[in-house]
O-succinylhomoserine sulfhydrylase (Trinickia symbiotica), 396 residues
Amino acid sequence: MDDSFNFDTLAVRAGTVRTDFNEHSEALFLTSSFCFTSAAEAAERFKHSEDYYTYSRFTNPTVTMFQERLAALEGGEACIATASGMSAILSVVMAAMQAGDHIVSSRALFGSTLGMFSQIFSRFGITTTYVDPVDLDAWKAAVRPETKMFFVETPSNPMTELCDIEAVGKIAKAAGAIYVVDNTFCSPAVQQPLKLGADVVMHSATKLIDGQGRVLGGALVGTRQFIIEKVFPFVRTAGPTMSAFNAWILLKGMETLALRAERHSASSLTVARWLEAHPTVKRVFYPGLESHPQYELAKRQQRSGGSVLAFEVVGETPEQQRENAWRVIDNTKLCSITANVGDTRTTITHPATTTHSRITPEARAQAGITEALLRVAVGLEDADDICADLGRGLNR
Ligand SMILES: *Cc1c(COP(=O)(O)O)cnc(C)c1O
């Protein structure tokens, strides 16, 4: 599709290919394999399997439409879809690295990503050094001759710390490392890392791209050379492939992504400001607030503050803090007590005892995750209703 179209147009139309029936909405191709008219055609198509449809572990037309659309939204040349966000991370590492290689990563990572680097890749001789994402000197100091990858997640979960994508990209380039940014928390509607120097954007499409909490999905976007020549051979062979059904759901998710992201951000800001003014709230962490230490960077790097915020309730001792935080959760009637983010429904969690309970108390303290901390992923309900719902437990 014409690259000159703007984001909202691409989100609705990019990648669409019609069959001879001229269906208006994208067709869902639930088929594991594709037929050939002759032995010679089969031979030809198997030889060039990236250009033809042969088998859905390799390629599928609905998945291709998803890939083309997401590549257009991120401003990348090519995209490979995967079964989940985690299988996208598996695929990029398998595509780019081998035993003996080294990753430099921000230390504030999604829990399973941390587990993948520390417990799984380490068994195959791939080591990781974790750095404070804000400390540029730490990124430089962590580089070794065998460093092959930089990995960044921004804003961080749950503290909403930002990593300067462009500045870290310069260090990655100087190190000759492939630079991967997990853009799950923002989506391309809010942040486009390829334009800031990332080599590869990784997604858990499970979150904002679906946006309605239905299916799992993942993706990698980058140059044609890297995606088609390095990632595609791994995904085609190993099979962490996205299902056609999930691709079809996620195509529909992308059509409303920009609208949803705008509303998520606007409501998050309303809730963050309301919390900041509340007498039993100690601190609020949200990149759209002027009080956020990296507010200026957020304005440069993101179109808006995003859909995730965190806040601390008051409390003298850790026990009191936990009691006060849990009281907020237990008095909600609207918010869902679940860890998903980027959903139409607002979700609330106590990171110290759920998503971040398995890391050591020292690592938790270093990350700033106290017993007083709550994380809210603001949904599409009325923002005043969300504030009132949080207020029930805060006012007691
Ligand atoms: C959810 C998530 C993942 C993992 O994605 P799945 O689709 O659950 O496999 C990776 N990174 C971030 C930032 C996430 O929120």
The chain has 14 helices and eleven strands. The pocket of pyridoxal-5'-phosphate is lined by residues 84-86, 110, 112-113, 153, 182, 184-185, 204, 206-207, 216, 218, 341 (CB under 6 Å). The chain has two domains: 7-255, 258-394. The first strand starts at residue 78 and ends at 82.
